[in-house]
Every structure is written in structure tokens, then in C-alpha cells.
Design goal:
The chain is of the alpha+beta class. It folds into three domains: 4-67, no CATH class; 76-267, Neutral Protease, domain 2, CATH 1.10.390; 287-346, no CATH class. Helix content is 47%, strand content 13%. The protein has helices at 103-112, 127-146, 148-169, 194-210, 213-226, 234-248, 251-258, 262-267, 278-284, 290-300, 304-316, 321-331, 337-346, and strands at residues 4-7, 11-16, 20-25, 35-37, 46-51, 60-67, 75-78, 90-93, 119-121, 230-232. Strands 1-6-3 form a three-stranded antiparallel sheet, with no helix packed on it. A three-stranded antiparallel sheet has the order 2-5-4, with no helix packed on it. A two-stranded antiparallel sheet has the order 7-8. Helix 2 (127-146) packs antiparallel against helix 3 and helix 11 (304-316) runs antiparallel to helix 12 (321-331). The protein binds zinc ion.
Amino acid sequence: MKNLANISSHLKVLDTKDLTIQRVEDPISLKNLSFKVYDEIGNFGSKLEIWINDFSDVEFPIRIHYETSRNGSALQWLKKDQTGDGTHPYFFTQCAAGDGTGLNVIAHEIAHSWTGNLVTHFNFEHFWIKEAFTVFLERKIMGRIYGEPMRQFLAEGGWKDLKDSIEQYGEKNPLTKLHLDLTGLDPTDSFSKVPYEKGSTVIWYWDELYEDSELFDKFIRYFLSKWKFQSITLHNLFETILEFTRKEAPLDVYTKLLNMNTTAWFEEPGLPPYKPEWLKLGIRSRYKPIVEQVFRFTESQGRIYFNQQLFRDMYDWKEQRVETIETYHRIKNRWMFITGYLVGRELKLFC
Ligand SMILES: [Zn+2]
């Protein structure tokens, strides 16, 4: 790997983190430059000093040969099976985004190499398909870099954007449908967050339905390889997930998919008929700030189904178990007796 940096003094100090510096050279003379990597200081990385033979103040380039590592945060390597089509590994650098804040934009464009370029939509009425997968994959990449809570926050932010967008159009506006009928309409009028965010909620929903993100990744790869270099419709997409699920996933997943209200999801305007459960995902990824939100939510309503599931998941989170049981005792009298009893059983308080 090579990188060029313009520098101007005889001793240059750079920051490195989780990199192995192999060699530093003057790219014009190809002569090696001496360098020293200091010991790592906590999470801040190590100092890299480079001595330059030229003492003038004229800017000239240096070339650094380095190797990134599994933990490198500024430089990332996705193994081939972590990529959309599973055939090529991918290397990318935060420097390409300047400071990393635009990284999701880059992740989005990377994802488009598969969903958008390799497989694309049949016509503008099916535009949402490529953006749905691309947004889903973009957030998956972000999750791999910054952790699962980041993926959820981006998705949760996307949901807010979707709500705003639908409010602007009006919830009965046909342009807030996923599968559009653009007869007599200008496609550019339909351009909004809807295909991106309502679309990625479909993919998110399927991923949750699978309850096995590795198997769902396998579906995405299957879908991409089946339709590569082709343009597809909603019908093609849905047939493909049905086909894959029937062959590869547990029967109950297939049944749920068959029972999916496709009219409400694809043909009706407004918000999708399902909202992702950010709380459960937060618990599962052991994201501490979620705990307070979970307790507030369970206290605020008495639905057996929600509270049982959330407390069951909280119970599995060992470090939070004591606090979970304390909270249960504090709030159980707000619920109906049966709810308190069933949730208590999830906490192994009764036989
Ligand atoms: Zn896009």
C-alpha cells in the first residue's frame, strides 16, 4: 500500500494507529528515508518520525509503505465474504473522506457497485430496489467499522427522515409508495427519502425476520449473483427471496415471508406497516445507553409481548442483570398482574 503526503520540513511527525510501517522512501530518487515509530500511547496510536535529507523548505512528496491491520480504524480491509458479491476483497481509507464524516457517503457509493451497477432496477417505478439495498449495505459497512449501535443509529435517523418526508408529501400521496405508478408523471417529482428509507426498512425487516444476519447476507449474495448484469422488478425481487428462503431458511421464516402484507409494504402510501425494534437491537449489541430507554419504555406501557421480550433480552445481558431485576420490582405494579407474572418468569423469579 502506498500513500503520498506533501511535507516541508526536514523532520516530519505523523500519527499512526494500528499500522505496520514497512518502509519510507523519496518517490523521486527511490531512496529509503529513515524513520522511527514510537511506542503506542493508549488509544491514541503512535508517533511516526521521518527524517528528510533535504533541508530546504521546498515541498516534496514522500511515500510510505505500510500494512493495515484487522483493528485499524482509519484504514479498513473487508474480506471478500464481507463484500456484496463475495468475490473481491475491498480496501478503503477514511482519508478519502477527509475526516471520516463523509464515510457513509463513500460506503453508499461502494455498495452501489453491486446494488445499482451490477444489478439495477427495471425502470424508474422500481427505483427504490437499488436504493433500498444500497442504504442497507451502506449501514452494514458503517456497522462493521464503528460497531452495531452505529448501524442502528443511522437507521433510526433514516426513519426520522422518512417520517419528515412523508409528512411533507402527505401520508396519502401516491409518491410515498415504494412501487410507483409514474404514468403521466415526471420521475423527478418522486425523488425523495422515501425510496431510500422506506425501501431500506423492507430489507431491514427481512433481515430481522431471518434472525440470522449471516444467512441473510447469503441471500443478498444469492440475489446479486442471480440477477447480475440485469435489471429487475419488484416481482423478480420477491420471487427471489421466496425461492431462497424456501430452500435455505427455517420453515417459520418462509411462512412469515409468505404472510408478509405486500400490498401494505409496496403498494400503499405512507409509513411502512412495521417499525424496526431499535431497543431490542440495542440490547443485543450490549449498548449501555439503551438500558435507560428500555426501562423507560417498559414502564410506559403494559404490553405483555413487548415487556416479556425486552426483559428476557435484558436478563441475558449478565452485567445488567441485577439492575434489571431491581427495575422489574420497581415497575411491575404499574402493569396488570399477569404481565408482571410472565415477565417475572423471564427473570427466573418464579418457576
Ligand atoms: Zn444511492
